[in-house]
């Protein structure tokens, strides 16, 4: 069977409204003057992963629910501009949206509008089977409809990845994703014992690789039963926004995996792409390209290799 999609991205399409605030947490006040503007832009986790994969030259197809509304139009336009194939399932409740408060140091606080979905939302099975049959790999967002898509994807024979984001290691909602995926990404931010959680994912599920990102502290990689530290890569410009850094890491890691690189090289690619994303304002979409990724990764490795005597 012909597989002309490198990565099928499920879920995570939506619009964020970006507000740059003077500090986080934001102290209570009757009002704040936001000189930089308050701007909606297309791009939630699935959009960012799809854009990152496409920028690295992988044939990418994104499928999710979108409303017939201005927010949905922004998402459709983003995919057109970046040449990303999009299958939009009609969502009468409207396109998903959120508000991101971004502090001067690039940290963010996200407020998600959960009213744009229904408990009975499901991807049409025929559509999902057709797309999965054409794909090599599927990256699954942790939105509700994707839970029910996991068995169909498994039956189609594609490998799976997911990002658990700031999972605390206890919330049962995340477990179907954690235990179904071959590659699991998550943030270490809410974990009291990252190693214990990473090993539990590998022991109870299918994961060959588990990656816990830790911001400026780098990341931790579990593969073949061994956990190693992945050092952070210095950003090529001042850090302005951490929004999308985890998605960039995942996209570059998957690029490495799908092009046959070993896990540690994949993690280096992720670190390079994540550092790049931190230099891009939330109001823009500018994923790192393949040539730039490979060049920066090679430069980092050269700096870390022992000097010849």
TrEMBL record:
<feature type="domain" description="Carbohydrate kinase PfkB">
    <location>
        <begin position="49"/>
        <end position="285"/>
    </location>
</feature>
<dbReference type="GO" id="GO:0016301">
    <property type="term" value="F:kinase activity"/>
</dbReference>
<keyword id="KW-0808">Transferase</keyword>
<dbReference type="InterPro" id="IPR029056">
    <property type="entry name" value="Ribokinase-like"/>
</dbReference>
<keyword id="KW-0418">Kinase</keyword>
<dbReference type="InterPro" id="IPR002173">
    <property type="entry name" value="Carboh/pur_kinase_PfkB_CS"/>
</dbReference>
<dbReference type="InterPro" id="IPR011611">
    <property type="entry name" value="PfkB_dom"/>
</dbReference>
<dbReference type="Pfam" id="PF00294">
    <property type="entry name" value="PfkB"/>
</dbReference>
<protein>
    <submittedName>
        <fullName>Sugar kinase</fullName>
    </submittedName>
</protein>
């Amino acid at each position: 069977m012909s597989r002309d999609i490198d990565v099928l991205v499920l879920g995570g399409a939506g619009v964020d409204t970006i507000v740059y605030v003077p500090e986080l947490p934001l102290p209570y006040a009757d009002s704040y003057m936001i000189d930089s503007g308050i701007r909606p832009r297309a791009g939630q986790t699935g959009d960012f992963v799809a854009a990152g994969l496409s920028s690295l030259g992988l044939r990418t197809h994104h499928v999710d629910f979108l409303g017939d509304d201005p927010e949905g139009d922004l998402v459709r336009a983003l995919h057109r501009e970046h040449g990303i194939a999009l299958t939009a399932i009609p969502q009468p409740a409207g396109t998903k949206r959120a508000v991101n408060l971004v502090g001067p140091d690039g940290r963010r606080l996200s407020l998600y509008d959960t009213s744009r979905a229904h408990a009975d939302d499901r991807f049409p099975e025929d559509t999902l089977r057709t797309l999965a049959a054409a794909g090599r790999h599927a990256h699954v967002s942790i939105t509700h409809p994707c839970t029910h898509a996991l068995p169909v994807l498994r039956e189609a024979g594609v490998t799976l990845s997911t990002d658990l984001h700031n999972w605390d290691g206890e919330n049962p909602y995340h477990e179907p994703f954690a235990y179904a995926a071959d590659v699991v990404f998550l943030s270490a931010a809410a974990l009291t014992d990252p190693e214990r959680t990473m090993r539990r994912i590998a022991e109870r599920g299918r994961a060959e690789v588990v990656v816990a990102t830790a911001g400026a502290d780098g990341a931790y990689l579990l593969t073949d039963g061994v956990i190693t530290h992945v050092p952070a890569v210095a950003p090529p410009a001042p850090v302005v926004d951490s929004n999308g850094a985890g998605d960039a890491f995942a996209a570059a890691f998957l690029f490495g995996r799908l092009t046959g690189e070993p896990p540690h090289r994949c993690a280096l690619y992720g670190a390079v792409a994540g550092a790049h994303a931190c230099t891009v304002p939330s109001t823009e979409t500018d994923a790192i390209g393949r040539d730039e990724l490979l060049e920066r990764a090679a430069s980092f490795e050269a700096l870390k290799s022992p000097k010849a005597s």
